Structure formats: C-alpha cells, structure tokens
Here is the input.
Amino acid sequence: MKKSVKTTPKTTAKKTAPKTQRVTFSVRADVGSTVYLAGDFNDWDPTVKQMTDKKNEGLFTTTVSLTPGEHQYKFVINGTWCADPDCPDWVQNELGTLNSIKKV
Here is the structure.
C-alpha cells in the first residue's frame, strides 16, 4: 500500500523593492553658483546631483527618489559643504559638523 503524501502548492513571495518617493530639495545661493546635493542616498558624492537655478534667481532645486526613512544630506555650494539653512532637523556627523535630515 502506497502512502499518500499531501503537498501544498508552493507560493513564491515576491520581494518588492521599497517604494520610493520623489522629494524636492532647494537652497538659495548667489546667481551663477555651482550647487550640488550630497547625502547618504548618493554615497556623499559632491558631484553627482547638480542642482539648477531655472529662473536665474538664485533658487537652486533638484528632485530625487528616496526610500522611506531618514536621510542625511548637505548642499555643496561652490565647493563648500553646507547644512540646509531651512531644515530644522540635523545631526552632528563624525567630522564635528552638521548634516541636515530629510524624513520620508
């Protein structure tokens, strides 16, 4: 006599990437400045995400897709790293300066 073995259908759970949200960053700087956004979301690379001043009024903006959570960032204005002057949330980094925090 053969034993019957009950099997349940295999379900494959699809792993989905965390949903991202488009977040716009902006900072004021002198017209003609070179401004970049650097943060934990781009390995703190000061040359990857250049910000633009579309109206030539000194308001530099860029939009990035971020995963949910807290992200640390800084602006790099003409080669100088700057915390976001309009961001109330910040944390001291290992260099003794401040990183701004964006909550998504």
Observations:
- The CA atoms of residues 32 and 58 lie 8 Å apart.
- The radius of gyration is 22 Å.
- The mean pLDDT is 90.
